[in-house]
């Protein structure tokens, strides 16, 4: 049985992994929260790694507040760079394969076609910069790693755009959403399935991959579909980023080319609309039984 350590237990992606873990009886999962395993503290990592012989580590721990990172750059660096580096060192020492998650925010958004793994990076903000540096550290230290860049994660778990829109759809009369940022919304449960499939297949095709659901839309279109599917009467207004200033500048276009992972792992990736329907069903189910 393969032993899989998951860091950042209480975060969105880790909860998605947990929600499907029973579908993978050949894997033994060990979930650790930030208080149980702080990735910025090498001693904390060493304690966990020396106790059990893990085969894989899925790093779901990260500093993910894109705007706050602009004023908390030291903390973002500590978690996204030092934390990633610490895990890579421990994985190297204990011969563990690391699956690390990164972001479309490593790109500046000036492209007009999907970004491949070879496309030039140029993060616009601290969050993207620290995530990119984390990737670089892992690749320097560890051969047996998978770095998966993904985009616009949402699910029935944690805080995310889908859950915010569903809430606003019930509470507000109208809302304005930007239409000049284009990307691919990705159901985090779909990503969790891909990660566990990589582990079960014992793939040795290490390296950098892009994964998102299929399709390219704006946040405005995404919100529109959420309101349509949830039958919300809310009025949706289209605005530009300049009318909705944020501390961190976001890429205008961050669509990822996913052909490499599709070919290497023989994946059939779902369109964002199909996955959104599943996610909304699951949100409704979890609210009904909570
Ligand atoms: N969300 C998105 O839209 C998106 C898009 C592209 C890529 N990604 C990437 O996808 C990954 C998963 O994102 P997510 O949405 O699941 O993030 P999330 O919900 O914010 O979860 C991050 C988790 O990391 C934990 N954490 C923070 N500092 C830690 C530390 N020092 N040691 C251990 N754990 C720590 C947090 O724990 P506490 O709550 O206890 O602090 C939290 O549970 C991240 O690498 C992120 O960069 C996310």
- Alpha-carbon Rg, integer: 19 Å
Count of strand segments = 12
Q: Please, what is the CATH homologous superfamily?
A: NAD(P)-binding Rossmann-like Domain
Query: How far apart lie the N and C ends?
Result: 33 Å
Query: What profile does the largest beta sheet have?
Result: 6 strands, parallel
**Average pLDDT metric:** 96
- Structural class call reads alpha/beta
Low-confidence stretches: none
Please indicate the count of domains.
Answer: 1
Structure overview:
- With 290 residues, the protein is α/β, with parallel strands linked by helices.
- The chain has a single domain (2-160, 185-214, 255-270), classed as NAD(P)-binding Rossmann-like Domain (Rossmann fold).
- It is 40% helix and 18% strand.
- The chain is built from nine helices and twelve strands.
- The protein has helices at residues 12-20, 42-51, 73-94, 126-141, 161-171, 188-200, 219-229, 259-264, 272-288; strands spanning 2-7, 27-32, 56-59, 97-103, 145-150, 153-154, 174-178, 182-183, 186-187, 207-210, 217-218, 235-239.
- The strands form four sheets. A six-stranded parallel β-sheet has the order 2-1-3-4-5-10, sandwiched between helices.
- Helix 3 packs parallel to helix 4 (126-141).
- It is globular.
- The model has no long low-confidence stretch (mean pLDDT 96).
- The structure holds NADP nicotinamide-adenine-dinucleotide phosphate.
- NADP nicotinamide-adenine-dinucleotide phosphate binds at residues 7-8, 10-13, 33-34, 37-40, 60-62, 64, 79, 83, 101, 103, 131, 150-153, 158.
